[in-house]
Amino acid sequence: MLNPFKKKPKKKGHFGGFKQKTASVLELAGHVTHLLSAPTNLYGLLITKRMDPAFREEIMVAVATLNACKYCNYAHHDFALQAGVSEEELAQLEGIAIEDYDSRKFLAITYARELANKDFGEIDADLEKSMKVEYTITERGDIQTTARIIMLFSLLCNTADAFLERVKGEPVEDSDLFDEVVIAGSFFGAILPVVGVYLSILRKESPI
User: Fold this and answer.
1) Quick check: 202 and 194 in contact, CB under 8 A?
2) Coil, strand or helix: which one is 102?
3) What is the Cα–Cα distance from 132 to 143, expressed in whole angstroms?
4) Per-residue pLDDT tens over the stretch 183-207
5) What is the distance between the alpha carbons of residues 117 and 85, in angstroms, rounded to a whole number?
């Protein structure tokens, strides 16, 4: 009888295997704690909209693409269009091609992706220096907060997907059953339905 919780070797090859980055409950809690430790940053970013919503969504699409999060990419692609980002800009953004792209925006997006790639640890000194020249401390804080928000949700979604892989009999290497169950329950039971309804309102379509 097939045991869905027995580990199998990861698939090899360009199209095989689970490539998304997953996280533990503690790692996600760390991101949440960091965000809640500076509520004024969240308020300024999400409520007062001191950052251009289109720019915010561009950063989110870039980080979601980096993390290979299909749910975040799908949702924020729509959010970006609603915020006024063109299809052409999104196409460039999802490929991160600098040609014909705003160099100042590209710098910020590169910075956000680097933060996510380094788990918000120490990043390239030259990149940090360039950001300090181009962006104020408040603007850099908003970019960091945006990157952390989408990082949190990308990891949450990917770990929920890892649970589905486990159920299919293909457990993901270095992903824990307990974390997958807790995170998948939160994602599929609460977060996905809310986002689905919100997207349906934006699109004026049935949530189904």
Assistant:
1) no
2) coil
3) 12
4) 999 988 888 788 777 667 766 777 6
5) 24
